[in-house]
């Protein structure tokens, strides 16, 4: 485990004062980011995987969607951007934290004076940096290759910003919560990736939203990925494309309500389920 030197100022009693959780979180986040970019295979997989899938689906489905002013290729840019956000948060945290727990990294960190909040702040910084980079790559690729129209005013970018922040927060919290489900590090990928794949299919990532069976739409609407996809389609597709949505509109108010509710629900799940030690330890 990599350690980072922290310089502290003396307290009123003469003993060194420990840095606050926020400062330690920044230091921990910088370390997490460095460790991530040192693993070249992980970096390539994280950033290339959604772009490759975008290229495949956009190459297969290139037709114009009737009466929408958009192509299926542009639809997949928005959907794969949402999937990329969930990949860098839910999938990444769910697997990495489960591995760190089994390797006793979490137990050692818990026994240090570092506040628990600093560990999670470090993970949040990692998720935000990788999420922003991957989103920027996907949107640049989509705008250059498939002609996706990026917002031309501040209102459009502000809408994108709050959807992005709420969506990545939801997925990160759910990733932390699901990290306690795997019984071992070897099973972490299977436990985390399976629900992620299922959600991608029933949330309109791989299949056009207007062709999904009604029961799939109903199930998908209980989870944040469906609303994250819908919000990003509203930002990057023409307004006429809202006719594809079940309600015939982008429903920004409902998107904010559902994603906001999942922020609260995800936090509660983390508080109730997170474990610092493996299952075989008491």
Automatic annotation (TrEMBL):
Q: Which InterPro entries match?
A: ABC2_TM (IPR013525), ABC2_TM_bact-type (IPR047817), Nod_factor_ABC_transporter (IPR051784)
* One matching Pfam family: ABC2_membrane
Its topology with respect to the membrane?
Answer: Multi-pass membrane protein
Q: Which UniProt keywords apply?
A: Cell membrane, Membrane, Transmembrane, Transmembrane helix, Transport
Instruction: Provide the ABC transmembrane type-2 domain boundaries.
Output: 41-277
Q: Where is the signal peptide?
A: none
User: What are the subcellular locations of this protein?
Assistant: Cell membrane; Membrane
| Regions crossing the membrane | 43-61, 73-99, 120-148, 160-179, 191-209, 255-274
Protein family according to the UniProt entry:
Belongs to the ABC-2 integral membrane protein family.
The name of this protein is Transport permease protein
Origin species: Actinacidiphila acidipaludis
């Amino acid at each position: 485990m990599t350690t980072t030197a922290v310089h502290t100022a003396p307290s009123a009693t003469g003993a060194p004062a420990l840095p606050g959780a926020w400062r330690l979180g920044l230091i921990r986040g910088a370390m997490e980011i460095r460790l991530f970019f040192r693993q070249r295979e992980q970096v390539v997989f994280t950033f290339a995987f959604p772009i490759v899938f975008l290229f495949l689906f956009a190459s297969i489905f290139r037709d114009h969607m009737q009466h929408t002013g958009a192509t299926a290729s542009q639809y997949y840019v928005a959907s794969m951007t949402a999937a990329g956000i969930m990949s860098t948060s839910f999938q990444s945290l769910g697997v990495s934290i489960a591995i760190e727990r089994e390797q006793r990294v979490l137990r050692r960190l818990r026994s240090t004076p570092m506040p628990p909040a600093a560990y999670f702040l470090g993970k949040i910084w990692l998720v935000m940096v990788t999420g922003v980079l991957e989103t920027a790559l996907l949107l640049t690729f989509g705008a250059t290759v498939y002609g996706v129209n990026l917002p031309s005013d501040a209102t459009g970018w502000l809408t994108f910003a709050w959807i992005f922040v709420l969506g990545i927060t939801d997925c990160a919290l759910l990733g932390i919560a699901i990290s306690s489900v795997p019984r071992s590090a070897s099973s972490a990928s299977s436990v985390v990736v399976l629900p992620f794949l299922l959600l991608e299919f029933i949330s309109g990532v791989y299949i056009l939203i207007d062709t999904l069976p009604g029961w799939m739409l109903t199930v998908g609407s209980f989870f944040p990925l469906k609303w994250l996809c819908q919000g990003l389609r509203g930002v990057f597709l023409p307004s006429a494309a809202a006719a594809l949505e079940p309600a015939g509109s982008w429903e920004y108010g409902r998107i904010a309500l559902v994603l906001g509710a999942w922020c609260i629900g995800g936090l509660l799940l983390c508080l109730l389920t997170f474990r610092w030690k493996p299952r075989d330890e008491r």
